[in-house]
Each structure stands twice: as C-alpha cells, then as structure tokens.
Amino acid sequence: MTVLAGPTAVGKGTVSAYIREHYPEAWLSVSATTRPARPGEQEGVHYFFVTSEEFDDLVDRDQMLEWAVVHGVNRYGTRRDKVDEAVAAGRHVLLEIDLQGARQVRESLPEATFVFLAPPSWPELVERLIGRGTETEAEQRRRLETARMELAAEPEFDAVVVNDRVERAASELVQIMGLTPRD
Length: 183
Hints:
CATH topology: Rossmann fold
Radius of gyration: 16 Å
Number of domains: 1
CATH class: Alpha Beta
Strand order of the largest sheet: 2-7-1-8-9
Strand content: 15-25%
Helix content: 40-55%
Order of helices and strands: EHEEEHEEHEHEHHEH
CATH superfamily: P-loop containing nucleotide triphosphate hydrolases
CATH architecture: 3-Layer(aba) Sandwich
Shape: globular
Largest sheet: 5 strands, parallel
C-alpha cells in the first residue's frame, strides 16, 4: 500500500487521476467527503459525497481507515472495507489523502509506503490554488495557511515526489509503488 499526501492544490487528485487512467493495475481509493461536488466531479469516481449524518454513521461503525476535518470545514475519509478488499485481492493500493489521514494510516499500517507530493515552489502552489477558481478568497486564505503547515511535514514521509509535470510525477510515484512506468 502506498499513501500519497501533500498540501492543498499540489495536484494529488490530478496525479491520481493520471495513474487511474494509465495504470489500471493500481487500485485508487475513492474517499468519502462531506464537501459539495465541484463542477465535473462524479459520485463514486472522484469522491463519495455524503451528508454529515452519513459520515458520522461510517465513523461510529468503525468503517473509516482514516478521516479528518480538512481546512476546518469538511470531513474526508477512506473506507476501511474497500481498502481491505483491494489488499486481499493483491492489488497495488494507492491512498490519496490529506496529511492528517496519512498520520492516522501510519498508526494502523506502518508498513505502508508514505509519499509526499510537493509543489515545485510556494509561488507555484499559490498560483495553482487561485488559478483553479473553485474557492472563495476566504477559503483560499484558509487553504494556504493549512498548506504552510502541511509543507513542514515533508520529513515525516518515506519519499518525496515533486509535481512539476503530472506525467513525470506519476511515473516516479508508480516506480515507488513497484509498478513499471510507461512511456
């Protein structure tokens, strides 16, 4: 199992989507979240969009491998049963999660490989966040404050991949996962 984490707007979702498309032998976990869907996001593909009550029920029934409140607003988490099924089937599992979730997974699955996805630079990260235009100014400020703290966690990880180009970052990540990169 490989855990991919990094700051907001670093491109975790973009790198994961590239791997999903080009490396079908990899199994990517789909997180549950209480945040509303963004334009173009599909239920069960990008996230499982659930209500706060549904999320509470999953937590109460110990159905979450990890979960966290992200940016002080919405909750995200990984369903334990889906991960267990993929591992049992011998799949290369990739969890794309936030820093809090990665820390929880390290507690329960320390044998996993933890990869930090880093931006090429702070100005590039700021540009990506603002450029996507999916958050209000207040939300952008909150996410950038969180990103500064998340960047400081890089030394906690087994490997660092810089997301300067999606294809290159994905290739490096699949090598870490033990898959054969494609041209």
